[in-house]
């Protein structure tokens, strides 16, 4: 009986974390309730290159470094896994393609 209660509480915590991620723009790709985990993905963001160009011109090229970094990070689709480990603790890791 106690084991069932612990699993129910863990699943509620997992559900809350997944709901937070959905509010941040992630989409659920896979959920497994027996081994409590969820795989979430987020589509690549669009970078306003015209705005970044003008900011780079106004800062004499200093903005080009953050612009390049932002462009590099934005073009990738982000996948994460949210799960409960053997000790009953939530963890989140990035999935590598």
List the helices and strands and how they pair.
Layout: H1 2-23, E1 27-32, E2 37-42, H2 49-58, H3 64-74, E3 78-84, E4 90-94
Antiparallel strand pairs: 1-2, 2-3, 3-4
Strand order of the largest sheet: 1-2-3-4
Main beta-sheet strand count, sense and barrel state:
4 strands, antiparallel
Number of helices: 3
The amount of beta strand, in percent, is 15-25%
Radius of gyration: 19 Å
Calculate the terminal CA-CA distance, rounded to whole Å.
Answer: 40 Å
Label the overall shape: elongated
* Protein structure class: alpha+beta
Count of β-strands: 4
Average pLDDT: 85
Verbal overview:
There is one protein chain. With 97 residues, the protein is an alpha+beta fold. It has helices at 2-23, 49-58, 64-74, and strands at 27-32, 37-42, 78-84, 90-94. It has a four-stranded antiparallel sheet, covered by helices on one side.
Offer a quick outline of the entry.
This protein has three helices and four strands, in the order H-E-E-H-H-E-E. The chain is an alpha+beta fold. Strand 1 and strand 2 (37-42) form a beta hairpin.
Please tag this protein with its features.
alpha+beta; 97 residues; 4 strands
């Amino acid at each position: 009986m106690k084991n069932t209660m612990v699993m129910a509480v863990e699943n509620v915590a997992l559900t809350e974390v997944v709901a937070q991620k959905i509010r941040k723009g992630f989409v659920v790709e896979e959920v497994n309730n027996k081994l409590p985990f969820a795989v979430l993905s987020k589509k690549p963001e669009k970078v306003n290159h015209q705005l970044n160009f003008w900011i780079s011109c106004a800062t004499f090229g200093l903005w080009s470094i953050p612009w390049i970094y932002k462009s590099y990070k934005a073009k990738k689709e982000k996948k994460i896994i949210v799960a409960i480990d053997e000790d009953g603790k939530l963890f989140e890791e990035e999935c590598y393609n």
